Amino acid sequence: MPIFSEKSMNPITQKYNSLIRYVLWHVLAKKLNLIHVVEYPKSGGTWLTQLLSDYLGIYYPRNVVPKFKRSVIHGHYEYSKAFNKTICVIRDGRDIAVSYYHHMLIGNEKIPKRITEENRKKLGFKNPEDVKTNLPEFIRYLNEDYTKRFNRHRWSDFIESYAKEEDVLLVKYEDMLADTKSVLLKCLQFLGETEIDNEKLEQTIRKYSFRNQTKREAGEENKKSFLRKGISGDWKNYFTPEAVKVFKQYSGECLLELGYESSSDWEVQQNQTGIDG
After folding, report:
1. How far apart are CA 177 and CA 188, in angstroms?
2. Among 17-21, 125-129, 223-227, which range has the highest average pLDDT?
3. Using the 8-state DSSP alphabet, how is residue 87 labeled?
4. What CATH class has 6-91+156-211?
């Protein structure tokens, strides 16, 4: 089967690619014993998929038409019983909103310019670079119009679909930042790996570290990069009282259930340096 870069695909090839992925996800997943890594977009799922693929030496069809072979599959579908086991990467929904805004409306090297322009036209912001001003409306968009498209969900609904399933391991992006090795070990054990090559594990973690992939330290921002900043807590730099209000309306309960806040009275506070942004 030929391999195509998504950037070079015409619309027909893109639809073919999507069809093949759908068949893998929902028909052949158990037969091929696919390793399933899932996330709400911008939650760190690509990073974990790279780590697992590299350490296990298993094919990862990133941005190509997949082959019908055992793979580490990364996606954004809600829960499905089609897989033997699923690892779901979760992240603070406030950080997702900020990261997704940059992804959709600022753009990066992974996104064709025409897509960024289409997103800007669709949302109609007077100044798309003004993240703070536009964020409340963007959060509404993610929870309303965005969900009307195929395979697009509210963050809270997506998390809820996985939260109580026995064949799912939930891992937090924030824990991956704090202790990548521990999280990767937990994932490998969940997948049934009993003998761990510690040296190989360390090499894999270094290979896919933010610093090694971007040549920047975590927190050093490049707004045009798919790996923009590599931290948690960046929402504090962009949320206004209005953004807080809108986010609570749609996802306040989920934020509490996941332990990102202990009370519904949370507000915007002065940001800090380091891993918390």
Report:
1. 17
2. 125-129
3. E
4. alpha beta
Q: Which two tokens stand for residue 39?
A: 């996330």
Write phi, then psi, for 269 (nearest 5 degrees). Answer: -125, 165
Per-residue tokens: 133: 């001003």
Q: Which residue has the tokens 């709400």?
A: 40
Size of the chain, expressed as the number of residues it contains: 277
Task: Give residue 274's pLDDT.
Answer: 31
Give the CA-trace dihedral at 191, 193, 196, 197, to 10 degrees.
-90
Count CA atoms closer than 13 A to 222's CA, side-chain side: 14
- Tokens at residue 101, please? 């805004």
The answer to whether 161 and 78 have CB atoms below 8 angstroms apart is yes
SS3 243: helix
Predicted confidence (pLDDT) at residue 275 exceeds the cutoff of 60: no
Predicted structure pTM score: 0.86
Write down the domain spans for the chain.
Answer: 6-91+156-211, 93-152+217-276
Say which residue the tokens 């806040």 belong to: 261
Going by pLDDT thresholds of 50, 70 and 90, the confidence category of residue 271 is very low
Tokens of 135: 């964020």
Question: What is the residue whose two structure tokens read 């953004």?
Answer: 243
